[in-house]
Amino acid sequence: MRRSRSAPRRPRSGNAALAAGALVEAALGAVFVLAGLCKVVVSDDAEALRRFVRGSAVASDGPVSFLVP
Fold this sequence. Notes:
Distance between the termini: 77 Å
Shape: elongated
Structural class: mainly alpha
Number of helices: 3
Helix content: 55-70%
Radius of gyration: 26 Å
Strand content: under 5%
């Protein structure tokens, strides 16, 4: 059987690929929303990072210790 030239050649799995892409995008969106909510709940994030850096041995006498306030 010959194919007519007017019929477009599209893969049959196009809808599945679009659905999979949408699912991945929705999952990533949910991760970002949850991460944002976590930042709201844990408000002392910056202070915890400062304590962590100041507690490090490299921060007090390492080669880049002059950069740490």
